[in-house]
Hints:
Elements: H1 2-21, H2 35-55, H3 60-82, H4 84-90, H5 107-137
Helix pairs in contact: 1-2, 1-3, 1-5, 2-3, 3-4, 3-5
Amino acid sequence: MKQKLLQAVCFVISAALAFQYDRFGGTEFSGGRITGPMLDLFGVGTLMFALGLLTVWTYPRIAAVVGVSASLLCFPLYVYFTAPGPFRYVFRGEYSVPLRANFEWDFWAVLGLLVLIVTAYVSTRVFFAEGGARATQV
C-alpha cells in the first residue's frame, strides 16, 4: 500500500511538472526536425503519467511499466534544455538557435530530470515487489 501511494505521488508530481514545462506547443520549437518529435514524445509521456495514475491502485505492475515508459519519453526534452551541447553532438542537424553553452542551468528541467529518475526508480521497485509477492503466493 505504501509503495502504491509513493508511486501515485511520483506520477502526480511528474505530470504536474510536465504540464508546467509544456510551454512550446505553438512555437517554432514544435516544428523542428529533431525538436518536434521530441516535443510529441514529451506530450505522450505526460499523458502516460495520467494513465499510470489511473491504474496504480488496480494494476500496480502495469502502472509501473507505464511510469518507466513515460519517464523515458519525457527524459530527452529535459536533457535538451539542461545539456544542449552534448545533445546537439549526439543528434546532429541544423539548429536555428546558436549554442550559447554546453550546459545550462534551467531549474525546471533539472527538477524534471530528478523527478523522472525518482519516478522510474519507484516504478521499478513496485514492479519487482509486486512480481515477487505474486510468485511467493502461488
